[in-house]
Amino acid sequence: MSPVPPLHRNLDRRGLFAAGGALGGAALLSACSSDGEAEASGDTEGSQPWTFTDDRDRTVELDAAPSTVVAFTGLAAAMYDYGVEITTVFGPTTTESGEPDLQAGRMPVGELTVLGNVWGEFDLERYVAAEPDLMASHFHEGFDELWYVPEEVGDEVEQVAPTIGIATGDRPLEEVLTRHVELAAALGADMDSEVVAAGRDRYEAAVEAVREAAADNPVRLIACNASPEALYVGNPQAFDVLAKCAELGVDLVMPDNPEDGGYWETLAWENADRYQGDAILLDQRTGNLKLETLAEEPTWASLPAVEAGQVTPWNPEPVYSHVGVAEILESIAEALSGAEPVVSG
Asked: Which residues fall within 8 angstroms of residue 113, CB to CB, at 6 or more apart?
């Protein structure tokens, strides 16, 4: 595994997915699940047997619904949007300034117990002390490790409590959302609540907004990630939200030679103009160069989309709730609608 997540650039830093007494621990949850399809029972005492089959085809069987859950921050943030509170997490949760990381979504980060905030950190001792009934994280197609669980502690983590892995990345977006919905329901979420319904409505509206923007203003987008060493051009088919946008008619630049599982093509800065779009989606996850820093890079500053001011922040690792994905789709729809053609061909 790399020192920084998949969705990131290359295996040495960002290369997988494109390359993250008892502790305060999680909500009382209830449900009975079969093959990942569960209905919340409303019984918070957890008196019924509980099962869930994850995307690794592993089935967790418990005597009762889990009462203490530990989860990867991004997955916990999705559960939060459906009404399930998980308060012990690992993965990017706060920035250096103490603000919520993108992957923390709407969670109250000041109330969370964080076992590790950066790639490679995982406090195994505190994890054991939390006495979890269940641990849940993401994983990416082609890579077996659970996201943000360091390889060196993986065996010990599995011995403490059963684990659930939900696949993300190179997979249809609707499937990813469905699996998060199923897990939330299994953990006791009220999927008929007004909040959940509003999130679904917002997502559907965002999908239509992207479809309409792509038809009304057919400009070309390019997805990028930047470091001091290189510019990385994203392969839209490897990122579920971008693949969805392509289905909706968005014209996205496709790099010729994506490496490391097909997520990014690496370009030296002197070749950063090899691919061009009318507008740029710029990876804004923690650890990547931001727009204000990139202004000092001459090749970047000379790109037509940059000169036109048509650069939009982008999060390649969304919070996989309907609200979380809707936020990204809304931003892409706005980028499409506001862009003018600045490149030919």
From this structure: 23, 24, 25, 87, 88, 89, 126, 130
Question: Cα separation of 104 and 92, whole Å?
Answer: 7
6 band by pLDDT with thresholds 50, 70 and 90:
very low
76-109 pLDDT per residue, tens: 999 999 999 999 999 999 998 889 999 999 999 9
Which homologous superfamily is 32-196 in? Nitrogenase molybdenum iron protein domain (3.40.50.1980)
Pinpoint the residues of the chain covered by CATH 3.40.50.1980. Answer: 32-196, 213-338
Q: What is the spatial distance between Cα 227 and Cα 288, in angstroms, rounded to a whole number? A: 6
Q: Which residue has the tokens 């650039």?
A: 9
Which tokens go with 232? Answer: 């990385």
Spatial CA neighbour of 303 closest among 282, 274, 260, 325: 274
Q: Can you read off the two tokens belonging to residue 115?
A: 């076992």
In the numeric block, which tokens belong to residue 328? 């990204």
Distances (CA, A) of 91 to 150, 207, 257: 11, 28, 30
The answer, yes or no, to whether residue 8 has pLDDT greater than 50, is no
DSSP 293: H
Average pLDDT over residues 50-63: 96
Each residue of 146-185: pLDDT tens digit?
A: 999 999 999 999 999 999 999 997 789 999 999 999 999 9
Task: Please calculate the CA angle 69-136-41 and round it to the nearest 5 degrees.
Answer: 60
pLDDT at 127 over 60: yes
Q: Does domain 213-338 bear CATH number 3.40.50.1980? A: yes
CB atoms within 10 A of CB 227: 18
Cα–Cα–Cα angle for 124, 127, 131, nearest 5°? 140
pTM tops 0.90, yes or no: no
Burial of 123 (0-12, 13-18, 19+ CB in 10 A): middle
